[in-house]
Amino acid sequence: MILKKYKAIIFDLGNTLISSDYSGKPVQERNIILMNGVTELISKLSGRVRLAIVSNTHEITSEQIKAKLAEVDLSEKFEVIIATAEIGVHKPDPKPIEVALKKLNLPPEVCLYVGDLESDRIAALAAGVDFIFSGTNLDNEFWLNLSNKESAYKRALASEYFFDTGYELAARKKFDLLVKPPGSLGLLEPLVAKIAGIRKSYKPDVDPAAIAVFIGDHGIASDDSVTPWPQIITKQMGDLAAGGQAAISTMCAANDIYLEIVNVGTVEPTTHPDIYNHRIGAGTKDIRFENAMTEKDAIHALEVGAQTAERLIAGGSRFLGVGEIGIGNTTISAAIISYITGKSAIEVTGRGSGISDESFERKREIVKSLANLEPNLSGVEILARIGGFEIAAMAGFILRAASEEVPILLDGVITTAAALVATRIKEDCKIFLLAAHNSAEPGAIAALNYLSINPILDLGLRLGEGTGAALAIPILRAACHAFNEMALLSDLN
Question: Which entry of 82, 145, 290, 387 is 20 to 30 Å from 324 by CA?
């Protein structure tokens, strides 16, 4: 049943449910003209899912909409009706849809929005709600579009990634014309030039900036073999991050960075209202004994990440950082890095959150065994055999952001492992990657070298959460501002 994931369907009004051609008549004089297939579809949906309306209006109220729908016996079918004239904000702003979600008391991931305009799509995605276009016959095209709804991950794969070397070269040349010695801003100069090439702008910037943090647990952490920390920590840290009390949330607040927390697969379900709940399962399987997940679950996690990037971009973000929380994920990352780069377990395995010598040796042996899998596995196969839900989601996030030509700022060793998987799936995404810092985990160096990316910071960080990205964004912001506002040598007298 293709409706099974949805608890509510939210409709646009004009040219979705009713014709908007009223020849300038005031609302009280208008006759309702239903679009083709509306009566049939609403009849099929009524009682199966909850129904709502969110309509852009300049003066018409929700009560007036309800009164008009009563003329065609539809008013009682819609539990919630939002007229934007009453809240003062209109689509493509997501707020009207968010107001509807609040009235329905439902999370966005179980709702679908149906509309006829691009502004409807943008608003829905920014609110975290799935979207389909309405079409000319609502009953026929609703079911067709729902069954054929292309995933965000598939959109990422189908896209042609384009980096504009012309903008990059122009930025490099401009740096040499600014009032400073050539090359004196060091690594900042090629970084800003790269952002110019990605953003296709002669005035590159990193705003609006957002960081997505994906959380998930790993079966390998079900005992104390590779980590002394219990799995419940993942859920607890996710709650703290969403509540503004974790390192990442304090840093984002200090640096004007939007933060989003996405649960992809914690052992303990999350209930925090500010966490996007896309939990696929109660953590992955223990890779010492079986595959981490099915390929179907790997693609599901890739989709969660791709949808997250799509939602943030629809909401206006133009620079994206990525981070994670997951007990045991340094072991998983080391195995992925070793497998893809060919580096030995000794070269890529670190102590993670701090483990004993005995645990460290066990961790190395596990990484060594996983790195010796059959050669030439695809990205999805690697995820299914080794990877975590949050690592897969980050790979999907990277791919979808790159497909929209948005810069992606990696955090630490786990995010670099995800980037390796993403490049395994579609190598073209590599040019859109930047690295926030050189993690204290040894695998990070191997991964960044493989990706040919120089890190911005080297502070011995190994916290994860996206904290390195939150610290690097202000540096990139300042560098872009300097590039855009500094005087030219030719301005000197």
Answer: 290
Q: Please report the DSSP string for 218-273 in residue order.
A: -GGGSSSSS-SS-THHHHHHHHHHHTT-SHHHHHHHHTT-EEEEEEEE-SSPP--T
CA distance 214 to 76: 40
| Half-sphere exposure at residue 189, Cβ-oriented, CA atoms within 13 angstroms | 16
Give pLDDT tens digits for 148-165.
677 889 889 988 888 999
What gap in Å lies between CA 428 and CA 403, rounded to an integer? 9
Of 221, 446, 451, the residue nearest 352 (C-alpha): 221
d(CA 241, CA 270): 12
What's the rounded Cα separation, in Å, for the pair 285 and 426?
Answer: 26
User: Which one, of 387, 454, 456, 389, lies nearest residue 424 by Cα?
Assistant: 387
Please report the pLDDT score of residue 39 as a whole number: 94
Q: Which amino acid is at 53?
A: I
Domain 191-479: top CATH class: alpha beta
Cis peptide bond upstream of 269, omega within 30:
no
Q: How far is CA 43 from CA 32, 73, 126, in A?
A: 18, 11, 29
3-class state of residue 479 by DSSP? helix
Q: Are 446 and 337 in contact (CB under 8 A)?
A: yes
Task: Judge whether 8-149 and 191-479 match in fold.
Answer: yes
Measure the CA–CA gap between 454 and 409, rounded to whole angstroms.
12
| CA 175 and chain centroid, separation | 33
Over its C-alpha atoms, the chain yields an Rg (Å, rounded) of: 25
Q: Before 92, cis peptide (omega within 30)?
A: yes
Measured CA to CA, the distance from residue 30 to residue 152 in angstroms comes to: 39
Catalytic entry in 310, 404, 405, 465: 465
Answering whether pTM is above 0.85, one says: no
What is the structure's pLDDT at 25?
53
**260 part of the active site:** no
State how far the Cα of 111 lies from the Cα of 106, in Å rounded to an integer.
8
SS (H, E, C) 387-417: CCHHHHHHHHHHHHHHHCCCCEEECCHHHHH
Domain range list for the chain: 8-149, 191-479
Which parts of the chain sit beneath pLDDT 70? Answer: 1-2, 21-30, 148, 352-355, 493
Query: Which CATH number does 8-149 carry?
Result: 3.40.50.1000
